Amino acid sequence: MPAMSRPLISRRAEPLTGRAKVPGDKSISHRALMFGALAVGESRIEGLLEGDDVLRTAQAMRALGAEVEKLEDGSWRLWGRGVGGLMEPADLLDLGNSGTGARLMMGLVATHPFTTFFTGDASLRSRPMKRVSEPLSRMGAKFVTREGGRLPAAVVGTTNPVPITYELPVASAQVKSAILLAGLNTPGETTVIEREATRDHTELMLRHFGANVTTTIREDGARVVTVTGFPELTGRTVIVPADPSSAAFPLVAALVVPGSTVTLVGIGMNPLRTGLFQTLREMGADIRTDNPRIEGGEEVADLVVTSSALRGVDVPAERAPSMIDEYPILAVAASFAAGTTRMFGLSELRVKESDRFTATMNGLRACGVEVEAEGDTLIVHGKGAPPPGGATIAVNLDHRIAMSFLVMGMAAAQPVAVDDAEAVDTSFPGFVELMNGLGSAIEGN
Ligand SMILES: O=C(O)C1=C[C@@H](OP(=O)(O)O)[C@@H](O)[C@H](O)C1
Ligand SMILES: C=C(OP(=O)(O)O)C(=O)O
Hints:
Layout: E1 8-11, E2 17-20, H1 26-38, E3 40-46, H2 52-63, E4 67-72, E5 75-81, E6 93-94, H3 99-110, E7 115-119, H4 130-138, E8 142-146, E9 150-156, E10 165-167, H5 173-184, E11 189-194, H6 201-208, E12 213-217, E13 223-228, E14 237-239, H7 244-256, E15 261-268, H8 275-282, E16 286-295, E17 298-306, E18 314-315, H9 327-336, E19 338-343, H10 356-366, E20 370-374, E21 377-383, E22 392-393, H11 399-411, E23 416-418, H12 431-438, E24 441-444
Parallel strand pairs: 2-15, 3-14, 6-7, 10-11, 18-19, 22-23
Antiparallel strand pairs: 1-23, 1-24, 3-5, 4-5, 7-9, 8-9, 11-13, 12-13, 15-17, 16-17, 19-21, 20-21
Bound molecules: shikimate-3-phosphate and phosphoenolpyruvate (PEP).
C-alpha cells in the first residue's frame, strides 16, 4: 500500500514529438518469472517490466524457492526448481495490486503438496477469485477464502492432482493460465476450452520452455488448449517486448494533441493484444506500423502515430478480449471523436483493479463528456472537439484510470487532475517522465 498519495494534474500539452520506449509487457514479464522458476537450470530475462506488480511476482517466486536475481535494469537471472519442485512459502504471499500474479500463482501452487496463503492490496482483496478456485478445486486443491471467494485466501495444494477439461465461463487469460499451470504438475492432459480467444502468452512461452501445449480449433470455433503433465522445462532466455497496453497511453495522447508525431519502438504486436490499434484505425487514426520483426519469438513493430481527426465507431463485443485493458483510454479517445462510439460486451471491466466501467463513465461525465450505459455497453458521444475537462478523478488504486485521465488533460479545454497516481507504478514506472519528455505537462498537484 502506498504510504502517501500522489496527486497529479495534466495541463494542455505542447505538440508531442519524439521516440519513446514504453516498459516491458506485464503479462509476459509475470510469466517469464514464473516459468523460469519452474525450469531446470538458468533462465535469463531481458526487458522485464520492473513495475510493482511484476516485482511482487519476483518476490513470490523467491518465497517458493527459486533463485531470482536482478543483474541490471531489465536484465534478470533465474535458477528454477523444476516442475513440481516449488517449496512451501514460510509467510503470506502479498501480490499487491496484481490479479495476474495472484491468479496464475494460485494455479501453480494448487498442484503442489503444501499450503500457500495469498493476500493483496485493497483492490486485489475485492476482486473475484472463485473463477480460479472453482476449476482448481476440481483438480483436487482446497481453498479457504473470505466471503465471495475473495483474498486473503489459503490454497491447500493437492498431493493427488486430477486432470480436467474445463470450458471457461468468462473470457479470461488469467483463468485459462491458472488451470494450464496447475496442469503442469498433474498426470495426463489438462484442457481448457475458450469460446473467445484470449491472450496466448502462457501457451507460447510454455512451448518456448519445452512443454507440450497444443491448441486446436473446435467445429464451433472454440479454442481447445491442452497441456501434457510433467514436462521437462529447461532454462531459456525470454526477451520481453514493450507492452502494447502501456503504449496505448502515449499513442492516444499523440492522436488527440494537435500537431503531434510520436514513434513508439519495439511494441508487442501479438494479434490477441492489438484490438485497440485496429479500433483506432477504424476511427481514422494515423498509426503506421514500421519495421515489423520477430524478437524473442514475439511479433514486435515500431508504431508511428500522428494526430488525427477521429470519428465514432461501434466496437464489437468479440473484440473485447484483445483490448480488455484499453477501454478506459479508448473511451478518452472517443470523447474527442466526431460522433458516437459504442463499446459492447464490457462486463469484465467491472472486476478489474476498480470497476472500470463505472470509473470511466463517471470520470468522462465529470469532464463534461456525454456518456451513456446500456447494460454492458458504454456509449460515448464525442463532439469532434476537445471536451471541457476541468475535473479531479478518483483513481481508486487503478493505474489505467489514472493514466487515461492524465492523457485526457493533455488536450481537454481545462486541465484534468487525478487524486492519486501512485498505482501507475504497478504497470508503467516512469510514465510521467516519458510523457513529459514527449511534450506533456503533468506535474504534482
Ligand atoms: O493474463 C494476463 O496477463 C492478463 C489477462 C487479463 O485479465 P483477465 O484474464 O481477467 O481478462 C488482463 O486484464 C490483465 O491485465 C492481464
Ligand atoms: C487488469 C489488469 O491487471 P491485473 O488483472 O493483473 O491486476 C491491468 O493491468 O489492467
